[in-house]
Amino acid sequence: MNYCSSCGHKISFGKVPEDDIPRHHCEKCGVIHYQNPKMIVGTIPYWQDKILLCKRAIEPRKDLWTLPAGFLENNEKIEEGALRETEEEANADVEIVRLFAVYSLPKVSQVYFLFLANLLNLDFRPGAETLEVTLFKPEEIPWQEIAFSSIKFTLEKYCQNSEPSKEKVFFGSSERGQLL
Amino acid sequence: MNYCSSCGHKISFGKVPEDDIPRHHCEKCGVIHYQNPKMIVGTIPYWQDKILLCKRAIEPRKDLWTLPAGFLENNEKIEEGALRETEEEANADVEIVRLFAVYSLPKVSQVYFLFLANLLNLDFRPGAETLEVTLFKPEEIPWQEIAFSSIKFTLEKYCQNSEPSKEKVFFGSSERGQLL
After folding, report:
1. Which of A:103-142 have CB within 8 Å of B?
2. What is the distance between the alpha carbons of residues B152 and B150, in angstroms, rounded to a whole number?
3. Is the four-CA dihedral B151, B152, B158, B159 of positive or negative sign?
4. From its phi and psi, is residue B114 left (phi > 0), alpha (psi between -120 and 50) or beta?
5. Which of A51, A77, A173, B18 shows the smallest number of beta carbons within 10 Å?
């Protein structure tokens, strides 16, 4: 951040009144430019004993496998975002069952929210950011080709605790310095 | 948003490549300025059959009651943010038990995450943004003086489902046009 997005003046970074955390702020117009973590929302679509994974068509982690997920948008409810991303990445129709995993990535200021979701039919196909959409049994999951630590964490917990009737939400996080 | 925070050029708003959602973007340097919802994280601190509420010292909703909560900061894990806010608002020492409520406010692009938390001692006192910190039995909660719809939702669910051993997370949201 170099310029004030409100008035265009050169930005300052440091102490602002009544706040212990240094902030980007404008000494001309007074606006404080807060920066906060982003939510990544998605689903674990399941069909009988299989779950749906997407092979990424874009960087980062192109050609590796992930769950359908992406950034929550302004004016969306969290569940709406998870359904939209599932549709965009995999053209998959799902019904949310419950929140399953929450995973923080403090280094890059992201928090993942993955919902267990009932796949309603098999009419899925890759979206623009996906090369391939496939159903995997737990023993078929390509563990060496999973795109992100958040997704690996979620899949591991799913394979260890697959009863959708249970209500427990699994919390995890990356190591301090870890990016993805 | 009027100016590019990266190069200071006048900002544009509209279609960007490979995206259905119009974005603020800079036609000079090419940066796309994504805007995403923010997380508000906090706790429901309980002590025997009572829960802790804070009377707000600041706007919005000054003089009304809330749970200790605030914006998650960059480089924080979600649970760390909830603990920090509980300390800042109420100087209360708690231990997180589990996630209890998730509440979306799409109109203002916020999502609340409230964690059930065991209050470890009674050495709480108001922080800078709090006038008063008090323990309430369920039947003593001042329902007409609760600051936010997210907090009213959470307290209602808590009073109806107070067994901390259960794992269910309650999801709610404001009406489409509702601000707080």
Report:
1. 104, 106-107, 109, 111, 128
2. 6
3. positive
4. beta
5. B18
| Number of residues assigned to chain A | 180
Chain B closest-CA separation from residue A7 CA (Å): 7
pLDDT digits (tens, 9 = 90+) for B119-162: 999 999 999 999 999 999 999 999 999 999 999 999 999 998 75
Banded pLDDT at A30 (limits 50, 70, 90): very high
CA A126 remoteness from chain centre: 18
pLDDT < 70 positions in chain B: 162-165
Instruction: Inform me whether the C-beta atom of residue B155 falls under 8 Å from chain A C-beta atoms.
Output: no
Which strand (E) or helix (H) includes residue B85?
helix B78-90
Residue A65 banded pLDDT, cuts 50, 70, 90: very high
Residue B32 is predicted with a pLDDT of 96
Q: How confident is the model at residue A18 (pLDDT cuts 50, 70, 90)?
A: confident
For residues A57 and B22, the answer to whether their CB atoms sit within 8 Å is no
What would the two tokens of residue A66 be?
């992930």
Helix (H, G, I), strand (E, B) or coil at A95: strand
Question: What tokens does A171 get?
Answer: 């919390």
Task: For CA atoms B66, B71, B77, B80, give the dihedral sign.
Answer: negative
DSSP A69-83: EEEPPTT--HHHHHH
Predicted local distance difference test score (pLDDT) of residue A105 = 96
DSSP A122-178: S-----TTEEEEEEE-GGG--GGGBS-HHHHHHHHHHHH---TT--PPEEEE--TT-
Residue range A70-112, pLDDT digits in tens: 999 999 999 999 999 999 999 999 999 999 999 999 999 999 9
Residue A43 tokens read as 């689903």
Chain centre to alpha carbon of residue B45: 14
> Which member of A11, A77, A98 has the closest CB to residue B173?
A77
B30 DSSP 8-state letter: -
Q: What are phi and psi for residue A113, nearest 5 degrees?
A: -130, 110
- Say whether B5 and A1 touch across the interface (CB within 8 A): yes
